[in-house]
Amino acid sequence: MKYALRKLGMLLLTLWAAVTLNFFLPRLMPGSPADAAIAKLSQNGPVSAATRAAIEAQLGVPGGNLFEQYVHYLQQVVTLDFGVSFTFYPEKVSDLVLTALPYTLVLVGLVTILAFVIGTLIGILAAWKRGTWMDTLPTLGGSFLSAFPYFWIALLLLFFAGYVGHLFPTSGASSPTAVPEFSFSFIADLIYHATLPALTILITSLGGWILGMRNAMINTLGDDYVTFAEANGLRGRTVAIKYAARNAILPNLTGFGLALGGVVGGSILVEQVYGYPGIGYLLYNAVVNQDYPLMQALFLMITVSVLIANFLVDILYGVLDPRTRR
């Protein structure tokens, strides 16, 4: 219980620090959203102070000193009201996030879980069968795939499977004529459009899970308790899963917690390449257009999800390895 309370206290302290940093980071960037709008108007001549004030009021640029803005920002965090987006004016930030979040959770979330499960199982098999082709093939394949960045694989799949082969759509999350409803045809259309982005994330992330689990398990297989279990005549599968893999999975579990927490942030490069309307796509537009309200909402959501994922992993660590509770 003390272990969980200590971790909870660290979570709350880190959350406050992240919220405060999230407030100051956008304001350290040069310029403002009003400057971008004024730059377009100033092509026809200089803009008066009254016009600038009207543009700032229309965009909802925060006024007052920095402390007043910080207090107002904390109130927004508590009420989850981040105002109106500068980029997609007059859309509310909360509406934009709620619209994009399901696409990212389904695409990045499911693929991350799938890659972790498949990669961990293959890593266990490769370590247990080390020195054979069942070890060499996944190790070399994982190393080869991990060397390529997300956007490069995305561009290759987009060119060959989209533009050349016409096998999959090249952008969007659904067909322009699709009607959003809970039906087989609409769900099939969503899966069809998400296939290429999902393959991109799966291909580039699978190798890391394989190599991480294999290396950790090979170290574990040399421990005395594994040798003792084998000497007692236990089946190989029992030794591999219940003895070696249970301890070897802890480093991979930490990485999985970070990856799962980062799911909410989406995959910015992949979503940009495929024009997929997820959180990563929103975040890119918010940064480019210096959209403070949208940036702060997205950064806060990503930060909170990562912190909560790490907290759950810490608790799970205490269950799997009682030594961490001391």
From TrEMBL:
<keyword id="KW-0812">Transmembrane</keyword>
<keyword id="KW-0813">Transport</keyword>
<comment type="similarity">
    <text>Belongs to the binding-protein-dependent transport system permease family.</text>
</comment>
<feature type="transmembrane region" description="Helical">
    <location>
        <begin position="190"/>
        <end position="211"/>
    </location>
</feature>
<protein>
    <submittedName>
        <fullName>ABC transporter permease</fullName>
    </submittedName>
</protein>
<dbReference type="Pfam" id="PF00528">
    <property type="entry name" value="BPD_transp_1"/>
</dbReference>
<feature type="transmembrane region" description="Helical">
    <location>
        <begin position="140"/>
        <end position="164"/>
    </location>
</feature>
<dbReference type="GO" id="GO:0055085">
    <property type="term" value="P:transmembrane transport"/>
</dbReference>
<dbReference type="InterPro" id="IPR035906">
    <property type="entry name" value="MetI-like_sf"/>
</dbReference>
<dbReference type="GO" id="GO:0005886">
    <property type="term" value="C:plasma membrane"/>
</dbReference>
<feature type="transmembrane region" description="Helical">
    <location>
        <begin position="100"/>
        <end position="128"/>
    </location>
</feature>
<feature type="transmembrane region" description="Helical">
    <location>
        <begin position="253"/>
        <end position="274"/>
    </location>
</feature>
<feature type="domain" description="ABC transmembrane type-1">
    <location>
        <begin position="101"/>
        <end position="313"/>
    </location>
</feature>
<keyword id="KW-0472">Membrane</keyword>
<dbReference type="InterPro" id="IPR000515">
    <property type="entry name" value="MetI-like"/>
</dbReference>
<keyword id="KW-1133">Transmembrane helix</keyword>
<feature type="transmembrane region" description="Helical">
    <location>
        <begin position="294"/>
        <end position="320"/>
    </location>
</feature>
